[in-house]
Amino acid sequence: MTATGNEVSARASSTRTRLTDFARVATARVDDAAEAIGRIFCPHELTPVDHSERGFSAHHNCAGFDGFSVNYVAYGGSVAINPGCLDRFFLLQMPLSGSASIRTAARELTTGPQRCASLLSPTIPTEMTWRGDCAQLIVLLDRKLVEHRAAALGGVAVRPVEFDPAVELTGPLGQMLSARIEQLVTLAEQLGPRKTLSAIAAADWRESFLNVLLNEQRHSLSSAIDVFNGRTEAQPAALKRVRAYLETCATEPLDLAELAEIAGTGIRALQLGFRRHFGTTVSEMLLDIRLAHLNARLKTARPGERIVDIAFDLGFTHLSRMASAYRAKFGETPKATLQRLS
Fold first, then answer.
1. Helix (H, G, I), strand (E, B) or coil at 81
2. Using an 8 Å Cβ cutoff, are 90 and 141 in contact?
3. Torsion sign (Cα): 160, 110, 51, 41
């Protein structure tokens, strides 16, 4: 930690400093701040917007956990920060005082207390200007954790995840995140740097942030996650592929995982899609197809062919259930169909 004593303290934000026992950086020198904070986060350009160091100060306190950390970062005066691509992590920045103007490759936004927070993605170039003695609580999440969890939730290969950077603090998600970050910071302050969260508690916090952000904040894999988990209907064309496969392979055992792969969805989404678009379940449709095939085979049966042999050929394993379903569909027993047409 670098420091210049009372000079830095005098320039600190009027907002209560958080995580004071976890101090990593405290300096009134721009170069020292850029180097020290860059080692913790990533290398970046740091420039006072008035082109002088008068009024500048920097504080960074950091409590680290497995796969994530919570940080208090404050700059005295106004500074321009250019980290480019963060590369290794996501940053959820919750403003406590001042404001921040953030420009990404696709969007510009201004954040401030009670209004808007920001969520920066590692593959999107970013520039920021922190104004008015800006102070923020920042949650850092490891990139691999986020991308692997997103891939698992969406049923896709691991790939970059890019979030909408604006988190509205007036909405339910923003309020929930604000409350959880405050709880985590308070917990870390109570424990202090000489104690740590248990592995289970740290995992619970990590999972909480991952699941909330990936399920509630829009990002590049949101649609895949919605479809895979049945929150959005699978496309009818995908369901038609599954129905055609059932028609062609009706004698094969039912494999929902294979059918979901054909549809390009999760099993739950496939099941919901069948109910919404066809008004039936996958197993009920397969049964209906097999019954239709059985009816056709009975109508063209050769002398001496047995119902039990035909039924087994078509994938039926429970003859009594088959007979009941057949009668419900065609109004007669398989034996009656065979005798009537023989």
1. strand
2. yes
3. negative
Rounded-to-5 percentages of helix, strand, coil across the chain: 45, 25, 30
Distance, in Å, from the CA atom of 101 to the CA atom of 81, rounded to the nearest integer, reads 10
* Res 7: pLDDT: 44
- pLDDT reading at 10 higher than 80: no
d(CA 171, CA 35): 36
Alpha helices in 281-333 (DSSP H): 282-299, 307-313, 319-330
> From CA 94, how far away is CA 245, in angstroms rounded?
50
- 275-292, pLDDT tens digit by residue? 888 888 999 999 999 999
CB neighbours of 57 closer than 8 A, spacing ≥ 6?
A: 7, 8, 11, 12, 26, 27, 28, 74, 75, 76, 77
CA distance 333 to 90: 64
Name the H helices within the chain.
6-11, 30-40, 143-154, 172-191, 199-216, 222-228, 236-248, 256-263, 267-278, 282-299, 307-313, 319-330, 334-341
**pLDDT of 6 above 60:** no
What is this structure's pTM?
0.71
Q: Tell me how far the alpha carbon of residue 298 is from its chain's centroid.
A: 52
Q: What are residue 166's phi and psi, to 5 degrees?
A: -90, 125
pLDDT at 337: 87
